[in-house]
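haha ok so turns out i had the wrong file open the whole time. this is the CORRECT one, sorry everyone. sequence first:
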Amino acid sequence: MPKKKLKIAVLMGGSSAEREISLITGKAICENLNKKKYEILPVEVDKNRKFLLDQRFYLALNSPQTKKSSRGAGLINWNDDDWKKSRVDLIFIALHGTYGEDGSLQGLLDSLNIPYTGSGVLSSALAMNKVFANQIYFANGLPFPAFIHFKKDNWKERRAKILEDIKNRVGYPCVVKPVDQGSAVGVSIVKTEAALIKTVDNTIKKYPWLMAQKFIKGQEATCGVLEKDGAPFALPPTHIIANLGEFYDYKSKYAKGGSTHICPADFSHEVNHHLQELALKSHIALGCKGMSRTDIFVGGDGGYYILETNTIPGMTPTSLFPEAAGKAGILFDEMLDLIITAK
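then structure:
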């Protein structure tokens, strides 16, 4: 008697600024999950946070012999009764950013007692918030760039003091970024106080909690972590060279030819080993589960600077995480199996 397939719902889309990337990530996960092991339900979360089953994609994934002309109607509402009837065994979270990667969805699924992939509520929330993540790095002796953070009301009422602190403790150039966004959303490099003021005035309207971070002159790297039998292990690090911008911004991340990835990184053995150590320590310090990817600058001053840890790395065709897993000899479907079975 054939073994029953595990029923997995892949959640993608959402209402965050990273919605389009999440849809690509979710599709890649659906297409690469082992069809012999899993029944796959591609579920899109729309901008109003409603759940929609992609019926046509579902049939293509699970019944490829079905004629295209007779496939389903595309996106259909997926309500509470549908969730109950489907008896999903596991949610594979492919949502990036707000409401998907920040602990919100994880808390909802915990309250419903539905198993899911990746980190839990606390570690997701900590990693997504760059201020809290840096406090965790600090408590664990991990290096990160100096920064000042402030909220919209602070900027309005204490602008002069904030500018003075940035000048004295961070310096110019500096990097202005939202505290709780990913994929380099809202990130700018500013070289003068005048440019800083203009950038903050524009950015803080949309993202009310910002940080000004010391600009690190050096080379950008990233290193993924997977888990096997409860033990995390580091993937080969990647040296990232941005081709379309001054840094590894949104366009460089996702446009075709936007960046060059050298994996394993072409640093010395000692540097690569240290990058792996930092990624592992960040993963453990934040309490991550299943997977993570930590972005690190190798400074021209010989130092190392952790920028952030991503609890749901991208899985698009140009994404760093599956690429590094492949360099470690782990096929895409095998990587997904490890994420699914992480304890």
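The domain at 147-214 is CATH 3.30.1490.20 (Dna Ligase; domain 1).
again sry for the mixup
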